[in-house]
From TrEMBL:
SUPFAM superfamilies: Transposase IS200-like. Coiled coil: none annotated. GO terms for biological process: DNA transposition. GO terms for molecular function: DNA binding; transposase activity. Residues 9-126 form the Transposase IS200-like domain. This is Transposase IS200-like domain-containing protein. It holds the Pfam family Y1_Tnp. It comes from Candidatus Kaiserbacteria bacterium GWA2_50_9. PANTHER family: TRANSPOSASE IS200-LIKE DOMAIN-CONTAINING PROTEIN (PTHR34322:SF2), TRANSPOSASE, Y1_TNP DOMAIN-CONTAINING (PTHR34322). SMART domains: Y1_Tnp.
Length: 224
């Protein structure tokens, strides 16, 4: 069965996720996390990628991004994952021992309004939901920490949000996720379907010839 084509156009917003092969741990030490963040910074500079949010977890990561050019997401992701894989295998002396990642990354479109805020919050609260930290800013390896506690240099990795972020950011991001948003986001993560309101989703369906799933969301129609 062929793969569905990706939507990869400038100025749209995407949530991207990739996991380690067989969900094995890929980040073991602070140096492992720091190394990936340096690659994330270099990838963004090489491709003029706008990173709106991200979080690194022990065996996977999430990034919310907004390309400046068509096919920008593919270029960014190819360099990031290939470089990380090559350098990981070289460091751990596991060259030829199989794939680092489970396969190609997953991605889905996000609407530019409250849905984008929900996606940012979902990404930054991953460590809290996983029991790795009590509050968002305690997890060093993500945009929540950089936004709230990072140095001026560390904050440069994050691009300006296309919509206003909550003024009292720490209180907002540390509030529990809304169950309906969390459920919808988990569907999008699992199926790669757009995350947004019904009117916006219908526009995406018409624009990109998506096929609606039984959940009422869309996925790219094969062969288009």
């Amino acid at each position: 069965m062929g793969r569905a084509p990706r939507i990869d156009l400038a100025d749209l917003i995407y949530h991207v996720i990739n996991r380690a092969n067989n969900r094995h741990q890929i980040f073991h030490t602070p140096e492992d996390y720091q190394h990936f963040e340096r690659l994330l910074e270099e990838a963004a500079q090489r491709t003029s990628m706008r990173i709106l949010a991200y979080v690194l977890m022990p065996n996977h990561w999430h990034i919310v991004l907004q390309p400046k050019e068509d096919e920008g997401m593919a270029t960014f992701m190819q360099w990031l994952t290939l470089t990380h894989t090559q350098q990981y295998h070289a460091k751990t002396q596991t060259i030829g021992h199989g794939h680092l990642y489970q396969g190609r990354y997953k991605s889905f479109l996000i609407e530019k309004d409250s849905y984008l805020l929900a996606a940012i919050k979902y990404v930054e609260r991953n460590p809290v939901r996983a029991g790795l930290s009590k509050i968002v800013e305690d997890w060093r390896w993500g945009s929540g920490y950089r936004r709230l506690c990072g140095t001026q240099y560390e904050q440069k990795l994050l691009s300006e949000s296309p919509i206003d972020l909550p003024e009292n950011y720490s209180s907002w991001v540390n509030q529990a996720d809304k169950e309906d948003e969390l459920s919808q986001l988990r569907i999008s993560v699992a199926k790669g379907t757009p995350f947004g309101g019904m009117e916006w989703t219908e526009r995406m369906v018409n624009r990109f010839k998506l096929v609606l799933t039984t959940r009422g969301r869309g996925r790219p129609k094969k062969g288009t």
